Amino acid sequence: MTRPFREQPFELPFRLGEIELFVLRYSSLTVAATIADLQNEPKPATLPFDHFPSGVDVVVCRSERIAEPLPAITWSPEAIRYVVSQFNQYYIDLSTNMKEYLSTFSSKSRSTLLRKVTRAGATLGGHVTLREYRKPDEMPEFHRLAREVSARTYQERLLDAGLPDGAPFVESMCHLASDDHVRAYLLFCDKRPIAYMYCPVRDGVLLYQYVGYDPQYRHGSPGTVLQYLALEQIFAEGKFQYFDFTEGQGQHKEQLATHAALCANICYFRPSWRSFLVLWCHQALERISRVVVGGLDRLGLKGRIKRFVRTWHWRS
Question: Which CATH code, of 3.40.630.30, 1.10.10.1760, 3.60.15.10, 3.40.50.620, is assigned to 96-240?
Answer without folding.
Answer: 3.40.630.30
